[in-house]
Structure formats: structure tokens, C-alpha cells
Amino acid sequence: MSTNHQTAHRNAKQDPEKPWLNPNAKPFVRFQNVSKQFGDFTAVDSINLDIYKGEMFALVGGSGCGKTTLLRMLAGFLDPSAGKVMIDGTDVNGVPPYERPVNMMFQSYALFPHMTVEKNIAYALKLDKMEKDERKRRIDEALEMVQMSKFAHRKPHQLSGGQRQRVALARALIKRPKVLLLDEPLSALDKKLREATQFELMAIQYKLGITFIFVTHDQEEAMALSSRIAVLDKGQVIQVGTPSEIYEFPNSRFVAEFVGSTNMFEGTVVEDTPNQVVIESASTKGNINVDDVGRYQIGQTVWVNVRPEKIKLSKTKPAKHAGLNVLEGTVSELGYRGNHVIYRVKAASGKIIMVFAQSQNRTEELDITWDDKVFISWEADGCIIVKS
Amino acid sequence: MSKFLRKFDFLQVILILSLALLYIPIIVMVVGSFNASQLANHWTGFTLEWFVKLFNDRRVLEAALLSVEIAFLASTISVILGTLIGISLVRVPRFFGRLLLTTMITAPLVMPDVITGLCQALLFNQTRVLFGWPTQGGFVTILLAHITFTMAYAAVTIQSRMLTVDRSLEDAAMDLGAGPVRAFVEITLPIIAPALFSSWLLGLTLSLDDVVIASFVTGPGATTLPMTIYSKVKLGVSPDMNALATIILAIVGAGVIISNIIMVRAEKQRQLDESKAMAEAH
Amino acid sequence: MSDSTNTEAATAPNSGAKKKNFLVRIISNNSKWLMIAPPLYYMVFLFLIPFLLALKISFADSILAVPPFTAIYEYKDDHLLLNLSLLNFQALGHDVVTYKNELIYNFGNLVGWIGGLFSSAPAVVTEVVAPEPSQYLSAFVESLRLATIATIVCLLIGYPVAYAIARAPKSRQNIYIMLVILPFWTSFLLRVYALQGVLRDSGLLNQLLIFMGFIDEPIHILQTSLAVQIGIAYSYAPFMVLPLYATLQKLDPALLEAASDLGSRPFRAFLDVTLPLSMPGVIAGSMLTFIPAMGEYIIPDMLGGPGVQTIGRVLWDTFFNDRDWPMAAAVSIAFLLFLVVPIGIYQYYSIREREA
To answer: What pTM, to 2 d.p., does this model score?
Structure first.
């Protein structure tokens, strides 16, 4: 992993809420040089990853990036081809799933169709031969927690999608695992329910203090839920960080493009002062100013990455000040999204630049329409350089 | 629209006609079993004589008992072995002899009976020469031969069912602390139980229906029900066989109709529950 | 932020976990085998080996002894003697019964075996009979004819029936399918017997035809190959309807609506959309009818009379009446070789269907 200069100074801070910043903190779950091969296919390629107690950790990536393989190795359904998986300081390689202190909530929920809600939740306790009264108490508590007490005697097919999801959650939590694994926990729910459930999930995690590790292909879901995110691609971890770090300080074009929308300008470094870097780019037919403390070589190829919401759009030329980047262009497309408007502006170089304009009042931004000549501008600290 | 209607009617007519053709011979046979006349073409009066005759026929009763014994054992053993095959083929991605096993369970389904029968006869003859066993054909040889082909049917049915079982159910059970065997017995087995039952019934029927293979492998003294029926009906009209057919039809018909009603009810209940759950969610 | 992921790999490997891993693997491998072995060995011993035995015996000669065939190899004076007879296979095509026992290929001892393959000519052929088509060949041709016609008839009846069921309201589909399957759960023999009753000279069919004035005298249907064709079509029609129904029922009605929306008339839409998509069902159904019909014994025996000699009957007679086991084995092997193509097609489709 390459170090990212923007966050280097933060590591000095000692924050009990952010154990990953503390060099003395012990990781709770640790992947150590873990690889997994399926025949010729390398699903996971020597991954190192530390996850701390109480985290809500997201593994994000496209299909086939290895995120589910990582989760299944943690659950014990797969053994790594190389490397070590540690849970709470113990190497768990070769320990079968039924002896691991982790539980999983499955993407399909995997509720046993021939058992009632109550029996599904009780299953793990029955296997543990827990005493009956205690078992009953724990089940009632779990049902209460997910607000499913009313439905205890229903079978899974008699429940709605959201109810099934809650039963699956209760069942996975009943043994009070050290780590809860969630495979695409919200993917089967519709949009409205998904948003409500996100908050529920966060509340439960906060209340129980259990480490949650979840897999999702939906970067918005990852952003909304997690304390930290690992972005994976082709079996490798590309970047690990808090949601805002990942969004505001992506370490590569891949991460910048995977998380949210972005405009990417390729160019070469022409000037490198301690606080600002100037990049010459063919797509802007000029220079771009970027606030950056990194060290670059003159002539080095880099990419400037500007988020669409950080760009301002106007019909009149904005007043020039130090560090402001201004381009001229023509609106080629616009899409109304209610809470914002998406403009696609064609710059003089032919490059299409995407701009999200928030509507402050009801008519202002819509004044700009198809084929209008416009100015687009962004601040030097509104963009970021990535080297790969 | 009228074109669609005409097409629909035409298909409907073919359907009804075909079903009628399918059932007319059977109905004639059932009617014949209550007909006092020995000849099937004239109704001379109602009688239960043929049923009485059937129940007094020691040969038929003994053969029926033998057939039922063989069919019960063969279908039970073949469901057990077929389940093992079903799990192996669906859950174990590669093992020695996988392709061979796949081929061996599909081939008997289409293999002509005469060939299966001949091959089995040659086998038992060979073991008799080599090991002196079996001294003569009979119960055991018929049973072994019947297991061979009923197992193929069971394996194919169970494999298809296993393919549709969500694998994460077993994973979930193991995740919650069940060992692999326990996960299978407590989770997968109850889910595939209906398929096991229907392949057991299928095995029972196939075994009770076989005359060719049994003829090849049997020996003196062991005659199954189909073999007895065959020797009787080959010669022509045999009203007590009409009576037997009526009894078999009554048992099978009642069974199929009852199970169908139960299935339809369960399905309706399930749909009702599902729509209720959906309605509550909104 | 990267320091959190830069963990050192240099910790000593946990040998305890490694050992356990190994043990678990051995146990799980064994238990896997414990599950696979019983049915696999059962099928090998009771399906594969019998077939190989038939293959072996088909190269032997028939004798009056127990067992009634010659050994194809003997071990005598440190020499392995192979007696491979190709007579049975020659007899399949032509009647060569008269000089059968003299065409034995005697191969030399084990050392000279390979050389023997080239040098040893057939032993003396005393008599050459003008070859005539054998009963096996003509029975085979007859079986092929009957099975083909019956399969086509089944398809012509089965397709519209399956189509009608698939298009019927959902609630009625189950009832229709149950009605199609119901006879299958009863005795096959008794169904053929029932058909025999309908087809006989004094049976319902002739009575009906006379009553309706089509004929004056009863026509002889029983004891002809027509009766066998009717019998096969009658008995195997459900096997045609079920796979056809399965594929037709899966067909998305929106496809036909789309075809109609794009300007296709109903019949044209059927030809362009329904028929091609139902081909897997057509093939499965045809094979499920054709293959067993080729080897059918009961139906030709009960409905066909002595005039209709099919391969199944000839095989039965060769085994039970002539007690010529090698010949029966050779007939089976040759028949199976012929069936390899349709069985292969069926296997291909059914395995693909099941594992898709």
C-alpha cells in the first residue's frame, strides 16, 4: 500500500474512537498475507487487513473482487491457500465454521424454511445445549430487539422481506458472536426499507458493541454504515480508510471512480511549490492549480480528480482569485434530479465535465440550459492529485 | 380474437379426446371386472365373482406378497443410496468416478429392459460359477436387480431436488454450530423429504411393474405378481385380472387424488400466507 | 492510512492449527468417500460389470454345459489361450448357423499373442452358405420401423396435448397432469391387457366401427404390427407429454405477446418462437419414447402375435428358448451400440437440464 500524504498528519492523533490510528492497539481480526486460489483463478491476492474491536467495517468492490471470499474465509467456509486469518489473536485456519466465534447473516438470509421464526433463532442455542429457561429468555430478548415478537410462530415464507432480514439478524446475533459477518445485508430490500434498516443496523451495532464486518457492492451503503471501508479490486486491497477519507482522498483513479462520480484530468506536473502544484492538462488546454503538500517531479504524469459537486457553474465569468480554476464550455446535456441537477458541459478541448448543481432556490440553476455558454470553476483545494 | 378462441377450442378438443382415449381401455377393463359374462363384449349382469376368485387364488396372493416385499425393500434401499448419490453429485465438486457415476445413473433410465435383464442374469450366473452364490435365482436376485434401476430413478430425482436447495442453508446451520452431518440431517433432509418420498413411491411402482428383468434373474419357485399376471393375460381374457386391475386402480387413484388435494391445499395456504405477509409489510 | 494494513507476516506459523487442519481434512475426505462409495460400488457391480460380462460372453461360443458358453481364455501350461469368436457378430447379419462352430480364432500363447493377431487366419471354413438376412437383422429393422412410427405418432398427439395443458388455467394444469400420470402409477402390464381387450375382434373398437357403419366385418388388429404401434403409442404417450409440458410451461407468455406485437400471426409466432424453444422437450420426449420402444418386449409379445418379431422378442427367445447366451449377449451389445447415439443425445440433454 502506498502512503497517502493527505492523511499522514492524522496518524499522530490518539483517538480512542479510532483504534486504527493508535499504533499500540491490537487488531481483533487480522488477515495476514492471505491468498485464495480457485484452480487458476486468484480470488484473493496476499491481502493484509486489520480490523479492530467494535468496528463497523465494510468490504467494497465489484463482483469478483474477492470480498465475499474474504468473508467466507472468516466464517470458515473456505480455508486460505496461503497466509493466516486471526480472530482475537488466534489463528483460525482449519477451524470449521461450527467452532468459530463468528456468525454470519447470509445474503439470501438462509432462514430454515421448515422452522418458525422462534425455532430459527433458537437453533444455535439448542446446539449449545443451553438450559431451557435461559434459552427462552435469550430468544425473547432477541425477538424484542428486532421487533419480531409478534411473529415468533410464523414460518419464513409468511414474512415480508424486511421481516426476514430482521430474523436473520437476530439468529446471527443470538450466540453473541465476537464478530458478525454480513453478506450484502440490505441488497434484497427495496430502497425505502433499505434506508430505514441502515439506521436500525447501526443502532444495534452501537448497542451491542460487536464487531460487524460486511460485504457490499453498493458504495453508498458502505459509506452510510461503516466506520472504515476497504476498497477491493482483483483480489487486492486498493485503499482502506474512513468513508470521508475514501471519498475525499482517494489514493488512485480506481477508488476515485468507484466511489461516487468524478471528473478526471490527465496531465503533467509543471510546477511544485510547498503548498501548491500546477498541472498542465490537454483536457483543460491550460493549467490546473491543486493544493497539495506532496513532492512531485516536474514532468511527472498525474491525474487531477474533481468531484462534480465541487464545481461551480455560472453564465458570467467568476472573479479570478489565486488558486481558482476556470474553464469555458457549452452545456451539452442536463438531467433534473429534484435535489440537484446534473450538467454535462463540453469544454473547449472536447472533454465532457460533469457538474452537480444544488438548487438553492427554485428557479436559479435552471436558468442554465442546453447549448448555453457557461463558465465552470473550482478551488485549488477542491480537487486532488492521484499518481496511479 | 375469434382466431385465438378457435385455436383454444381445437386444442381443448384434442386434450379431452386424448385423455378419453387414455382412459377408455381402463374403464372397459374396470367394467369387465363386475361383468358376469366371461367375455368382455356383452354385459350380462353385475357380479363380484371375479374378486372372490382372485382372493381365493393362492398363486396370485403369494406372488403379490413377494412383489410387495421386494418393492418395499428395493425402493427403501434405493432412496437411501440415491440420496447419497444426490448429495455426492451436488455437494462434492470432484471425486474419483464422478463422470462414471453420472453416466451410470442416467443409462438405466433408458436402457431397454431386456438388455438390463440379460446383463443381470449373466452377472448372477458368473457369481454362481465363481463363488457358488446365489445357488438359484429368486428373492435376493430380483431385489438386487430392482435396486439397480430404481436407484437410478431415485438418484436423478433427488439430484434435481438437491440442486434447488439453497446451499447457504447448510452453511448457516454450520455457522450456528452444527457439524456437517447434523446440518444435513436437521436442515437439508427435512427440506428434500417430499422428493425422497416421491422417489420412494416411484421406486415402489417401478418394482411392482417389472416383469422382464425379474423373469431374467428369477429361479424356480420365485414368481412375482407381474410375472403371474403376465402368464395369465398372455393367453387372453382373464376376468380375475380385470378385478385385480380394478383393485390396483382404486388404491392408486385414491392415493394420487388425496395427495393432490393435500398438495393443492398446502400451496393455496402458502400463497395466502405470502400475500398476507406482503400486505402487512406495507 | 496504509499503516493499518501493513501487518508483518513474520510471525511463526501455528503448528497446532496446521495439524488440526490436516486431521480435519483426512476425516472429511474419508467421510466423503464413505458417502460416495456404497452407491458407486453398487452401480459398478450391478450395472457396469454385468455389461462388461455381456461384452465378454458375446465373444464366446454356445455349448451344452453349465454355464452354456465356452471360456474365452484359458491358462494352460504357462500359456494364456484366447478363444475369441466373432461368429456371434457375423451371425447378426447373416445366417451362418451351419458352420458356426468352425470359425474359431485360435490365438497363440501369451508371448506370441501380438504376432498371432496378424498371422493366425481363421481356422478351416468347410462350408460356405449363401448369406441370407438373419432373423436378428429383420427383427432389428422391424423394431426400428415400429419405434419410429410410434414415436412420431406420440409426438403428433403429445405436442398439442402438452400445449393445451400448458396454456390451461394454472389450477386446471395440475389436474390434467395428474390425469396423464395416473395410468403410469398403475400396472403397465394391465394397461396393455386393457388395450388388448379393446382391440380384439369382438372388442370395443370393432363394435364401435360396425355400429357406426364404417365396416361390416370386424377387422383384425390384434396380432398385427398395427396393434403393436398402437400399443407403444398408448403406453409411451405420457413420457412424451411430460417433458414437453415441462418446457412449454416454462415458456414466458410475454415472448408470444412480443412476437404478436411485432406483427406475427399466432401460427407464425408458434413456428418462430414456441417450437424452437420447446426443442429440448421434443428431443427428451422423443428419446424417452424411442429408446424403450426399440427394446420393448411385452407389447409385441401381447399384441403382435408370432408374426411381429422385434429385437426384444428375439433376444428373449435366444436367451430363454435357444439358451444361446453368447448370441443373446452379442445381440445386446450390437443393439446397445446402435442405441449409443440416441442415448447419448438423451444423456446430453438431461444432464444439461439437471445441472444447468
So the answer is: 0.81
